[in-house]
Write a structure and sequence with these properties.
The complex is a heterodimer of chains A (896) and B (164). Chain A is of the alpha/beta class. Chain A folds into four domains: 15-140, Helix Hairpins; 170-359, Up-down Bundle (ABC transporter transmembrane region fold), CATH 1.20.1560; 373-481 and 808-895, 3-Layer(aba) Sandwich (Rossmann fold); 588-741, no CATH class. Chain A has 36 helices and 18 strands. Chain A is extended, with a radius of gyration of 41 Å. Chain B is an alpha+beta fold. Chain B has helices at 12-20, 30-39, 94-97, 119-128, 130-160, and strands at residues 41-45, 50-52, 60-66, 69-75, 78-85, 90-91, 105-108, 112-118. In chain B, the strands form two sheets. A four-stranded antiparallel beta sheet of chain B has the order 1-8-3-6. In chain B, strands 2-7-4-5 form a four-stranded antiparallel beta sheet, with no helix packed on it. In chain B, helix 4 crosses helix 5 (130-160). Classes of the chains: A alpha/beta (896), B alpha+beta (164).
Amino acid sequence: MAGESTLYRYIWQHSRREQLVVLIVAVAAQPVYFLSLTLPKLIVNGAISDEKYWAAHTTRNFLHFVIGIPESLQGWLGTQWVLLSGFELERVPYLVALSVAFLVLVGATGFLKFLMNTMKGRMGERLLRRLRYELVDKVLRFPSAHLRRTKQSEIASMIKDEVEPLGGFIGDAIVWPVFLAGQALTALIFIIVQNAWLGLITATVVSAQALIIPRLRRPILKLGKLRQVQARELAGRVGEIVDGGADIRVHGTSNWERAEIVRRLGKIYDIRFDIYQRKYFVKSLNNFIAQMTPFVFYLVGGYLAIKGQLDVGQLLAVIVAYKDLPGPIKELIDWDLARQDVQIKYDQVMDQFHPDNMVPAELQAPLADAPLLSGQIELKGVTAVDDAGFTLLDNVDLSLNLNQSVAATGGAGCGKEALGLLFARQVTLKSGAVRLGGVELTTASDGFLGRRIAYAGPDGYFFPLNLKDNLLYGLKYQPGPLPESCDRVASARFAAEARRAGNPDFALDADWLDYEALRAHTPTEITDRIAEVLSVVGLESDVYQFGLQARLDPKANASAAQRIVEARHALRERLAAENMSTLVEPFDPGSYNRNASIAENLLFGTSIDPELQPSALPHLPHFRRVVAEEGLEGDLVAMGLSIADTMIELFRDFPPDHPFFDEFSFIPAAELPAYQAIVKRVKAGGATYADRSQLSVLPLRYVEARHRLGLITPQIRERLLVARRTFAETLPAELKARIEFYETDRYNAAASLQDNILLGRVAYGMAEAATRVGVVMRQVLDQLDVRDVIIDAGLAYNVGAAGKRLTPAQRQKLGLARALIKNTDFLVLNSTVSTLDDQQKIEIVDRVLAYRQGKGTVWVLSKDDLALRFDRVLVFDHGRLVTDKEQVTMARAAAQ
Amino acid sequence: MSGVSEGPAMSIQTEVERLRRVPLFAAIDTSRLKLLAFTSERLAFEKGAVLFRQGDRGDSAYLILDGSVDVVVDSDKGPVTVAHLGQNAFVGEISLLCDTPRTAAVVATAPLDTLKIKKELFFQLLRDMPQMTLEIMRELAERLNNTNKELSVAHAKLRSAGLE
């Protein structure tokens, strides 16, 4: 029962005032509801049909409220209580008054119900919002050891699904049982008043029901609990299958996974079926007990009536009153079931969110200021252990200056990585102390450490945002001012509602960047800082490549698009000047492009619409129309026949699974026999319509310069050019809006930046063409100052879930850049560039150390020979610091 | 914009005829040579361009369709041109058959048009076409035989000169 108190305590603590208001409205609604039920009777009996009364009187009293007291109690309570004495009305006005009163009451009942439901809903949603926020808040405060053990999909399923029913229940948590119990009690009291014995019997049956049914339902709830755990684990397993999908395929173990899932589904089925059976048994038993009471009434009441001890009118009144009893009782029992169910869910979820050593909330509160580190970083007798309790660092004493570069080296398992992890607080400090200037590491706040110490390990996590947001992620400590463009009223309203639900009112729209740390204030300065860091970590050319592949919206970036078109012309001039014109064949509306396919030549534009891709042309009705109108079909069929002939000749002897088919053949292995038949029919002069259309599809991906079958004769070239013009000119308006044709002086919004600059194809068969064109392109972009446009576009590259769209090397570089750009007093790098080759490692270490000149840097090296570049070298062995020597590096000697 | 060249005027048919003139491929039937041509890359070099350097790992051979090349070997006294090859020469063929580094560099002495035959692809063809493998073996055996003959003639000459 301890659990119950926690759920109810939670509800009461956070919605007490709202619950009471709803309760008051609910109570207020009762008399109104009661009156709206009794009025029709009064209208019929009092105004319409009571001829006897109206024969004797001309007026009748309206709003005369009396509570009659039952005979058995009349002795000491009087005969009746007069609530309102009312006033006299004639018959028709009396009818009108009663009818209008009825209408008003119906309206009032409806309004009160609406009010109550809205309040209940709002209360539930607020509390659910609070609960979910608190759960996420707890996840953010999980100790790192617990995080490593936690399955993310299980946590997600709890926060998203398992607490969901709580929202619906919270509104009814207090009001509904009070309301139902009130109704049931009223009916019961009425019966007792009619006849004490029958009342007693009713009370007995009801309490039996209330005692037995919940008891029978208890095992169902236990099963429900089990089902919930199983379902959660299922969610966890599904998450694992997604995460490990590649490895499952590689190992060919998908069937083992299938078996595993089937076992779980079977278990869930068994549990659910068990629940189902028990649930319906209890339901029928409940119904049976409910029907027991009328049985007793008929038998006992009837017997008493026959014996003359009970009058028939009274018996009927009891039976009528009893009709009102089972409803509320049943609902009360249902409500109790829901309560226990929600209770279990709440307890279950809460259990998972209370690990030991949770990070105290104060350590994550926003900071007024974070003083710079001063003095030294000192480790005194530090012994650190991992999750399993193994000693990683053994009694290490060390003091580090804040202007030194320090290399930590040693063999595998020597403890150097633990030194790095110690500063990231990812290993447990068993004894000893780490002091950063005057601050104790273990009790320092996250915000303080985040600003003063940067850490990058070998495998940082990246959010599925673009490169820029990931890079600046480490600078978003707390909200700054709201931007000018923000709707202040709306944000104030949002913040107020957030506070009501116990959520913090941090505005996501605010400017979160720490400009001081970034040492940048204008957008240009930010771009400069980013470019600086990118070149330090050697990520610049990657970002440049991403940028070249990116698309730009020319409406939002008109000047950038203009500059790209200028770069296009400049590139052509440069290539001509350097005698390299043959390396690129430009898209010229007036000539056929031998380095593009026939389909590309006909479409002659770019679209992001799948319908308007070169490969989709055969399915485009407009394309088929143009081919027919321009008499191109014969050409296509002839070319198709030639291709089919060649393919059959070249590939017929290969087995169907031969790699040549994928790599070189125009016809997939499976279709080769069909094409053989087609060619035979065509040559015999018996081609069907289908044969011709099959053949006409083949040449569409034929590239003259690449495939060299000599199909594009001057006559065909001319006809293709005419068809290209017709295709564009007669294109239906709705398709026209979705395609960008190649035009020499216009930016093509659907094409990548690189394609826009080239506006042509790098020629096939020219040695080193792509590399040489790339070099010239880069020079041209630098000269025209368009590089920043490309870099900006590259920074908009989305890194994908967990950065999976980046290579491991790019991820490590990005992790390093993210730590560097924070400009912290102290930087800890833990095997951060381990996947790079030796040359790159040397270059990056040199650049990073130059960038960090005068600040503290500790680098845990995966390769010891880089240590010569550092001011000081630590060597670890078996968790102990065995060597600690300072050295004069070349860089330092030069600086002095 | 100076006009983009019409590119290789020769189609695959011409390439096949040229391949046939290479002794190594002389006995192989046309459809196989066509496959070799179709799966190979046509590659043009400017005058002065280096096709490969001495010591490089060899991964392909080049059939010269048009133009000329110098074969250059490094010596103690600097690079020495040991051969001058033109149309229909097949350079770098050793690397198609064994895993030795390039024994010489090849430099274009005029605008050059080649068919680049990749080792990987060549091996794939040999694996799938035993007939072709036999033809190549026969050609190699003949070469070996010739070399042996030349060697014994040279021996005889040396002996008669009294140098051995």
